[in-house]
Amino acid sequence: MSQASKPPLTPSQTVGPYFALGLTLAEHQSTMKSLVSSEIHGQGQPISITGRVFDGAGRPVDDAMLEIVQADASGRLDNDGFAGFARADTSMEPANSFTFRTVKPGPVRDGEAPYICVIVFMRGMLLHACTRIYFADEEANLNDPVFSRLPEDRRDTLLARRLDAADHGAYQFDIHMQGERETLFFKLPNATNA
Amino acid sequence: MSGIDSSQHPPFIFPAYQSSVLRGPTRPLFDLGAFHAAQSGAALEARASLAGRFRLGELDHDMTRNARQGGEPLGERIVVSGRVLDERGNSVSGALIEIWQANSSGRYAHKADDHDAPIDPNFLGAGRCITGPEGRYRFYTIKPGAYPWKNHHNAWRPQHIHFSVIGSSIVCRLATQMYFPGDPLLDLDPIFKAVPAPARDRLIAHFDLGVTQPDFALGYHFDIVVAGSSATPQDDHRGGDQ
Lengths: 194, 242
Hints:
B: globular
C-alpha cells in the first residue's frame, strides 16, 4: 500500500487574506489557539528578529506570514527538547512588522555560518517562497559554502543587521518581494535523506 | 522534482490574479538542490524534521463542534478525509494539517472580511488534525459558501477549504485549497486557473459515498501529495537526520 506508483504533486494555492484564522490567531477562541507561536525557547543567546515585508511598489504587506526553522544554539536539529519552528504574521502589529523571539542558532556543520530558514506566504503568492537569514555580524559568512557562492550583488538581501549597537540580540531583517533589493529566494532540494 | 516544480504548481506571477503581480518574486531562484548535490550533505531545508511536535485538542478536527456557543452551525455538514503521501507514494503519518474556511454563507470569521453575509456564532471555520497510520486524516465541517472578491468585476471565489500541511521537512511544506466537484465558478477563478491545466483536477475533492455518514453528513475524499520524501517518519527525532 505504501509503495504505490509515484503520485503527482498537489499544486500549491495562496493562503489568501484570512490565513490568520487557521494559522496564527492566538486569542480568537480559547479552544483554537494557534499551535505555533512566534517564539522559540532554548538555551543560548536570546535574539529578536524584526522586519517588514515589502511588495513591488515598496508598500509594506499587511497580510504575510513567515515561518522560520532553525537549529539550536549548538547547531543540532535532533534536540528533542528544542522546537526550532515558529510563525509570525504582519497583520497584527503596528507598522505591519513581524517579530520573532528566539535563540541564535549554532552552525549545523563545521565551516558553515549560522542561519535560519524562512518560508514566506501571503495573499497574492500562489506558491510560498524560501529564503534564509544570515547574520551580518558573523565572519563565518565569508566561508559558508552556500552564502559565499550566492551572487555577490544579492547576498546582502539575506543579512539580518543589528538594530542597536548596544543590544547584541536585536536584529532587523526585511524582505523585498521585488525591485532592486529583491530578496534572494531558493529552489529547494528534493529528497529528505539525499 | 523539487520543492518548486513549475509543471505542477502555479507561477509566482499570474496576471489574472491581480495581487500576484506585485508580490511574486521575479528573479531566478538559487538552486539549493543542485548545490547540495555537489556537496556531501543535505540542506537544513531538507533535514529539519517538523512532524510529530504538535498536540491537538479533542475537537480540533471537528469544526461542527469546536466553536459552538449554545447552538449548532448552520449549513450542510460534510466529512473530508483522505491521505497525505510524499512524491514517492509513501504515506506521511504525523503530518499536521491545518484548515480554515468561510462559513456556509461565504463569510470568514476574520476582521478583514467585509462581505455582507451573516457571521455564524457557532462556527469559527478553523480546524486541524494530525495524519495517522497510512497518512490518513479526517475532518468534520460545514460546506463553505462561495463569496465575492475584488479581483475583477463580478468575481466570485468557488467554494473552497484552505489546507496547510506540515510534514517531515521544509521541502514538503504545502499550502493549498480544496475545491468541490461540479462547481461552475472553478472555470472562472484565476487562483484555480493559475495551476497548470493538467494538475487542476488534483485540487478537486471527490464525492465519496463510502466516506458519507448515513443520516449525518456527505463525504468527500481529498488526497494530498507533498514534495520530497518522508522516508521513515519518526516520532523520535533522534537519528532522523542521517
